[in-house]
Amino acid sequence: MKESSAIRDQPERARPPRVLVSILNFNSFEPTLETIAAFRAQGYRDMHLQMIDNGSTTDCVARIRQEFPDLDIVCSPSDLGYTGGNNLALERGLAEGYDAVIICNEDIAVEPDAVEFLMETASTNADAGVVGGVETDYETRRVRTTGGTEFPDWRLRVRWPVEETPQGRPWRKVVFAQGALVLFTRRALERGLRFDDRLFLYWDEIDLGYALRDLGLAAYVDHRVRVRHSNAPASLSVRTGYFQQRNRVYLANKHFRGWKKWGYLAYSSLLEVPVKIVARTAQGHGGFARACLLGQWDGLRGRMGKGRLDSFSLLR
Questions:
Q1: C-alpha distances in angstroms, 198 versus 57, 89, 299?
Q2: Domain limits of the chain?
Q3: pTM
Q4: What H or E segment, with its residue span, contains residue 292?
Q5: How far, CA to CA in Å, does 274 sit from each of 277, 279, 298?
Q6: What DSSP string runs through 75-93?
């Protein structure tokens, strides 16, 4: 009996860690198809792929179902933003006993060994809370960033270095990883690591870095994982201006203390935003300038979540 029990248990011991991969989709079709195909081509054995649709207002979900009838699709009744939509995946991964959860955008492409490399780095480093990859331009494959190595300064300025692979190992420890593709370890999920829903989108990576530090965990970047990201930042869009400005104020209030906090709030209110209004308006970007002003105001008042997302058309 003992011998047969040992034989029966052997496949379970040999089973690799279970991974949930979750693609967050919003009103996207063709880019999402490529992202789904990239993860279906992964060589990692014990992986479950799902798509979370974040309250899309088009027929993209029905069209995706036609292309991938067996794909596990979870539909949110409303747009929860990047933070809320991905938290659905993190909660499911924890509840269903997955060893890791990988969240990603709907506009990326990765090589077939990406999941394997991410899991290898996560298992090699006992303090790993999240593991990301190197973000590259989708077309040129030029490196955009390898992850942040420092927390923001008192003006909320962040450096995203473009450093190459460290010598002697394929990964390195960073302060925060780029958010287009991020693996969350089970140890991090069990300690409560989640995105802050109040941010909705933008600056979530930096906030996650602070959360990891407080939990005694770390972020890593695996330089073997190249994340081809097709979404170039819309630096002067109304949405970008509003959420970037608002969320910086929120993070200053949340993470800064003493002179650093009050210094940033004074600097942004009395100098940074007024200069943006004058300069961007003169350049013909009046909507962006007004969005920054409203973002500053809402950040000071604590108006978070979707904020003014549904009224952005009035700013154009």
A1: 22, 17, 11
A2: 9-229, 238-315
A3: 0.92
A4: helix 286-301
A5: 5, 9, 16
A6: EESS--HHHHHHHHHHHHH
Long-range contacts formed by 305-312: CB under 8 A, 24+ apart: 305/81, 305/197, 305/198, 305/200, 306/79, 306/81, 306/200, 307/200, 307/242, 307/243, 307/246, 308/242, 309/79, 309/200, 309/239, 309/242, 312/238, 312/239, 312/242
Assigned token pair, 221: 């970047």
101: tokens are: 């959860």
Residue 207 structure tokens:
């906030």
Q: Are 185 and 130 in contact (CB under 8 A)?
A: yes
Residue 172 corresponds to which tokens in the numbers above? 């390195």
Ordered per-residue pLDDT tens for the chain, 316 residues: 333 343 344 455 567 899 999 999 999 999 999 999 999 999 998 999 999 999 999 999 999 999 999 999 999 999 999 999 999 999 999 999 999 999 999 999 999 999 999 999 999 999 999 999 999 999 999 999 999 999 999 999 998 888 766 778 999 999 999 999 999 999 999 999 999 999 999 999 999 999 999 999 999 999 999 999 987 666 788 999 999 999 999 999 999 999 999 999 999 999 999 999 999 999 999 999 999 999 999 999 999 999 998 887 655 6
How does strand 108-109 pair with strand 72-76?
Answer: unpaired
Residues 6+ apart with CB under 8 A from 182: 102, 103, 104, 130, 131, 132
Superfamily (CATH H level) for 9-229: Spore Coat Polysaccharide Biosynthesis Protein SpsA; Chain A (3.90.550.10)
Query: How many whole angstroms separate alpha carbon 195 and alpha carbon 198?
Result: 9
Contact present, 179 and 82 (Cβ < 8 Å): yes
Distance between CA atoms of residues 190 and 220, nearest Å = 18
- DSSP element (H, E) containing 225: strand 218-229
The angle, 0 to 180 degrees and rounded to 10, between the axes of the packed helices 238-255 and 258-267 is: 160
Using alpha carbons only, give the angle 90, 92, 96 rounded to the nearest 5 degrees.
125
Cβ(51)–Cβ(74) below 8 Å: yes
